[in-house]
Amino acid sequence: MVLEVKGLCKEYMRGSQPFYAVDHVDFSLNKGEFVSIIGRSGSGKSTMLNLIAGLLEPTEGTVTISGKCLTGMSDEELSVVRNTVLGYVPQGQTVLSNLSVLDNVRLPFYFSQREGTSTERALELMKMVGIDHLAESMPKELSGGELRRVSIARALMCSHDLLVLDEPTGDLDPETTAEIMDLLQKIAAEGTAVLMVTHELDTTSYGHKTYVMDRGHLSQK
User: pTM (2 decimals)?
Assistant: First the structure.
């Protein structure tokens, strides 16, 4: 099992009233499994992804990734998890404009001590996502779909276990959306667990399971 979420909650205050953005969620994800989560805006989808990625601390419950329980981890320990077993692609463009495509992709390699060189791995990933010919290009020269591919390749630079994506096709045209979804299918087929939040119902057909988030509750469709 790559991901196990148990009793996961995130409580906030709205005025003087507490409410759960994520309300006692349980689910798991296995190697090579591709799962989609849908739901209205404000239903708690992005909050749950941030809890899974260790960017938010849960009020209750646990998140375990590849046998590593995130509960009680320090910021430094969580950073190591994100740099070794978890790849995260947030909403919007996160590519650094002052770095070439190659340097953007290999950047995570330098966040912790490793042997060898990052270039071969980066070029391998760029070829896999179809942007190896853009290695020396700058982000301003790329289309929206190409930028998204850079983000996905970078998220996989040091991680093969779990790839988490928040609205990866939200600002893409239908043709590019299909290309990105084909890519995510390929990544899952090669053994990486893929967890995707989306508003686009058509994209859920690419995965194995679909869950619905509603007012903090998660249920399988």
Answer: 0.90
